[in-house]
Write a structure and sequence with these properties.
The structure holds two protein chains of two kinds. By secondary structure, chain A is mainly α. Chain A is built from 22 helices and two strands. The chains are: A mainly alpha, B mainly alpha.
Chain lengths: ~500, ~170
């Protein structure tokens, strides 16, 4: 732990790396605060800047963008009642009423300090948990690794309250896309139909950039055509005091901070869950355990703290399965994982042991980002009305051009740009019909891991299914998978007692 | 009623069934090794079952999203969504032909108009400034070689690269 801390600080406090992390924090806060730019999109748009960086520095930079963008989302949620990122939506419940009462500065102060505390607690939790988890995972054979990957996919269906079948189909489609190209074990071409371009498989990064950037701009295009664009309504004419709460006020919400940080970290660790689920869940929990639940939604600090602490804590949590198991905890982590794969890094349990610099770098970056982002966000908040005045007619096209560069620069191939646009268009159709792009991305990312490990387990067991999946851990994990997949289906099939009553 | 949901479901189902049988031709399994077709067939098999269930549900509940009526189809062809899709697709297709700078400039103007910007001066200034900023950042310090295009456009890109090379620090 101490070694990770020292090594992490050594990496991120190198002048050039610190400048990059600072730049990442500024970019992240701005991106996160801009409505229509989610944290995943912010990380996707930051990718081309990271292509030329060393892997360790690239992950630190992307982490700073990720953490800062989640925080940035809270600024617009408080000042304009527009959550910059979906995970900041619960912040509007109390942040905006507080700002309307003329306490915008205090609301921002609570939001930023809570974000920093949540992020820092999660960073320490990540540093503590990742090592032992990876050590346990190192003892896993291919059967166990297959079960872990399947667990990552099945959690999604359990968390999705919408159409379970569509979520499962989305995940399966992602798994299917991952099979396109040359079979890694036998070298046989699959679903290439003679195309040499498809032999190398479907590139993950253009697909992700398309799904997160192009789809979002298309969605905004339709929204604006229907006249549902974001009307920025500042509560204080763009001028407010950004006062940090005093110690007394800070101590009054200490338990809220602690509970929300722990909850956010745990939710973040679950693959497929993430900052949005964490913030909503934390807000609901705090409302339930509060002595004054009726005050929630009227503009109290507890509501802001619960939401912002949890969504930032989820960022640290999301990095745990990525670093310890090679399974992304969410969309942004999936993009970071692709960036690492692109750099030739073998993501998986061995990463923490063989290349501990990656864990140190993420840890160091999270510590520094969560501290400097308070000051960066305070400084930016004062000019926020001006930044938000950038019309979407400029921002939207620039986002697509950044996405184009990000896709092209991957292999200097315009084919990847076509793939990105196609993914964006299909993604729009996908999302508007209620399918889950998060499940598709997770399936695409975990596909190779699932297949390789299952086949290896079968081969080691000399062609026996019983031998391949007979370890207690595999059986338990697969049973949990089955329960997670079947639970929402059974729940949906049971008669709704509430509706009847 | 024919819904977009239903059509999408049928298309996915048809594709999955086709791929399921198509991949069977590359099966190279042995007694101790799973072949290249096993995993895709497993995925496609489950997908086919789920899509069939989804299809039945959609037909039975008659609640699929987006009813495909004549009016809806006509509306789509007049929509900004279609224009947006066409602009994005066109940009991706002309990028290798005319290179990054002209594509970026034209795209920013075209999509800006689509998103409601009506002031030509703003469009022009935004187009030029944003194109140059993106070009200088990525082609310069980040050393990402952006597409040059062919013929005249290639010469133009080389000319721009020469200018960029003359700027100290880039």
């Amino acid at each position: 732990m101490l070694n990770t801390l020292i090594s992490g600080l050594q990496i991120v406090l190198t002048p050039s790396t610190f400048v990059l992390i600072f730049a990442g924090t500024v970019v992240g806060v701005i991106f996160g605060a801009l409505p229509g730019v989610s944290a995943s999109m912010a990380v996707a748009l930051a990718l081309p800047f990271a292509y030329k960086m060393n892997g360790v520095i690239a992950i630190a930079f992307l982490c700073s963008v990720y953490c800062a963008s989640i925080t940035g989302g809270g600024i617009t949620a408080i000042l304009f009642k527009i959550p910059g990122t979906p995970s900041s939506a619960p912040t509007t419940f109390d942040g905006y009423p507080m700002a309307q009462r003329g306490e915008a500065g205090k609301a921002l102060g609570y939001s930023l300090v809570a974000s920093a505390i949540g992020g820092l607690i999660a960073a320490f939790a990540m540093a503590i948990v990742s090592g032992p988890l990876a050590a346990v995972a190192l003892k896993f054979g291919p059967g166990e690794l297959f079960a872990v990957a399947m667990l990552g996919l099945s959690v999604l269906t359990c968390l999705d309250n919408g159409n379970v079948i569509k979520t499962l189909v989305s995940g399966l489609l992602g798994l299917f896309l991952a099979t396109i190209g040359m079979d890694p074990q036998t070298g046989v071409a699959r679903f290439t139909w003679g195309s040499t371009t498809l032999l190398s498989g479907v590139e993950m990064i253009p697909v992700m950039i398309g799904l997160f950037a192009v789809t979002e701009v298309l969605k905004q295009t339709v929204k604006r055509a229907k006249g549902k664009g974001n009307d920025m309504e500042s509560t204080s004419g763009g001028k407010f005091k950004t006062a940090i709460p005093n110690m007394k006020e800070f101590f009054a919400v200490k338990w809220v901070m602690l509970r929300s940080s722990v909850l956010g970290t745990v939710v973040g660790i679950l693959p497929g869950a993430g900052a949005t689920i964490a913030s909503f869940l934390s807000y609901t929990v705090e409302k339930k355990v509060s002595k004054y639940p009726e005050k929630f939604g009227t503009g109290i600090a507890d509501g802001i703290v619960a939401s912002e602490c949890a969504n930032n804590a989820a960022t640290g949590g999301a990095m745990v399965p990525l670093l310890a198991l090679g399974i992304p905890g969410g969309n942004a982590a999936a993009i970071m994982m692709s960036a690492l794969v692109l750099k030739g890094v073998q993501v998986g349990p061995l990463l923490v042991k063989s290349q501990p610099d990656y864990l140190s770098s993420v840890f160091g970056s999270m510590l520094i980002t969560n501290i400097i982002m308070v000051f960066v966000a305070l400084a930016i908040a004062k000019v926020f009305a001006k930044i938000l005045a950038i019309p979407y007619s400029i921002l939207g096209p620039v986002i697509i051009m950044l996405a184009t560069i990000g896709s092209f620069a991957l292999k200097n191939s315009t084919g990847d740009v076509v793939l990105m646009v196609a993914s964006g268009i299909i993604g729009y159709l996908f999302v508007s019909l209620g399918y889950s792009s998060a499940a598709l991305v997770l399936g695409l990312v975990l596909g190779v891991m699932c297949e390789e490990n299952l086949r290896r387990a079968y081969q080691i067991a000399n062609g026996s299914w019983a031998g391949a999946l007979n370890s207690p851990i595999t059986i338990v994990l697969l049973l949990v998978c089955a329960a997670m997949i079947l639970f929402p289906i059974i729940k949906g099939a049971l008669p709704d007692k509430k509706a009847k009553s | 009623m024919l819904t977009l949901d239903l059509i999408f479901n049928v298309v996915l189902l048809a594709g999955a069934i086709y791929c399921f049988f198509f991949i069977g031709s590359v099966d190279n399994a042995t007694s101790t090794e799973l072949g290249a077709a096993f995993w895709p067939r497993l995925i496609l098999g489950i997908m086919i079952v789920l899509l069939a269930v989804g299809l039945v549900n959609t037909i039975r509940k008659k609640n699929g999203k987006g009813p495909v009526t004549g009016e809806a189809i006509a509306g789509f062809f007049r929509s900004k969504l279609l224009v947006g899709i066409i602009i994005c697709a066109a940009a991706a297709l002309i990028l290798p032909q005319i290179g990054f700078i002209p594509t970026c400039f034209l795209f920013l103007i075209a999509y800006g108009i689509l998103l409601g910007e009506k002031r030509p001066v703003v469009l022009l200034i935004t187009g030029v400034v944003a194109t140059l900023v993106l070009y200088i950042i990525f082609q310069g310090p980040l050393s990402i070689f952006l597409p040059r295009g062919n013929g005249f456009f290639r010469n133009f890109a080389l000319f721009m690269e020469n200018i960029l090379g003359m700027i100290p620090g880039l």
